[in-house]
Amino acid sequence: MGKKIISLFAKMLDRLIGPGMRNESITDLTKASKVGKSTLARARKAEAATRINTLEDIAKPYGLEAWSLVSDVDPDQPPALMTKEVELRSWPLDGSIEYDRIARLDESQLELISKVLDPILKQYEAGARSPATPKGRRPKDAV
What we know:
Blueprint: H1 3-16, H2 26-33, H3 37-44, H4 52-59, H5 84-89, H6 99-103, H7 107-125
InterPro entries: Lambda_DNA-bd_dom_sf
GO molecular function: DNA binding
């Protein structure tokens, strides 16, 4: 582990251990994680690197993944994972082509669709005209 990661991990442990937290002390976390008290104390003081399997053991009682202990992510507000619901909400072709139909296509089929759609989307993004706007007419919001 590099010094930055060791420092991030120490800060994360400070945020996770203390009064009112799930583990109020290193002793509590030792019982929950089965990681030695001295290992946790050194990690909390940023005195030593921690093995990946030890990170996993420490993360488990919090319901976290090991990576989240060595990142700037707030454990109380982790980034949202891409779920089917989020994918469907962000699907631009809502109503015209169902996401599930596209999701089943293989790589070569997706490439073919991409080759067809890319020029149309680039033209639209440049503000020239939307795919639904007749040739020679500008969209209402275009300047």
